[in-house]
Structure prediction request, 371 residues.
Amino acid sequence: MPQDDASRLPSVIHLLRPAAGGMAVHVRRLAQGLTGIGVPCRLAADQATLTAVNAPGLPQILLEPFPGNACFGTVPPDLVAASRDADILHAHGLRAALPALRCARRSGIQVVLTLHNVPGSTSGAEMLVARTLARRCCRVIAVSDAIARTLRSPGRVRVVVNGVPIPECDDLPKLREISRQQLGVGPDVPLAIAAGRLAREKGFDILLRAWAEVKSRIPAAELRIIGAGPEHGRLRRLGQSLGADAHAILAGPVPEASLLLSGADVVVAPSRSEGQGLTILEAMASGVAVAASRTGGLVASVETPRSGLLFEPGSTRSLQEALLRLLTDAALRRRLACNGRAAAEASYSVERMAHDTALLYAEVQSLGRQT
Prediction:
């Protein structure tokens, strides 16, 4: 973003619907990255979400309750007041778009919407809502081409891919050691890790079914699934029914799950649908081989067979084959890990995400306030 005149840097409010996991992590990294290049940022959300974002150094606007669908027609006065002396209201997710647009009608602020997931993955009505809201926002950020293609608003949509921290190469061996110690896994044990919200679209049930066969072929191998969510109980019961519970441990929520990925030999994303997939990018940045389902933004993130392996979404057999191939071929893992690390450095850093977002903000700021 041009910075010859610091006074022209836009002031931004990031409005989050109730969120945890990937979206909260994304917003923290984005806001901190933007602040680092001089773009003032504030966070607006309910208390639980502000806690999940975990960015105490950023100014916050507390919204209790969050003004979602149940409060249609209401706009918190604090949000309206704050938006009158800000340039951009950046809504994250469809549930944040409605209150953002209502606020804009009262304050004249321009609205930017980021979509983190592929609309319509749960219902056709969601797709219709997403396309309608996209046309009403000044600009829409899609975190992958897969999301952008669904919106049918090419003039308003920009693709800005997720950014992740890139650890120093010299730190990776120590990070691997620490990760395995925290997970209770020996240094030479073949280890696969999956991480994310425990929800149906993430496909962890598919992974558990595939792992039963992997374990029978590689008895020493271990699996760790890291996360929390509505499917926790069902996945626990499924693991027990498959006889997998002893080795496929659901490790629960971890504040910085990305730090544990470096301990893996393989990081796997078995998603049924996926906007882009932070876990895969974090694994690539950590120099770990990855396997992901051929869906959504994962297809662009994982350049098979150069930087990872893709398998068919929902296919237990295809996932088994990918895991067995990677866990039994150290040379292949090293090659994929090296190429994945290079891809992350080139395209998926937090700095690049913040820079590309700031360029879009400058475009929006040039339009002035709504009248």
Q: What stands out?
A: The first strand starts at residue 12 and ends at 16.
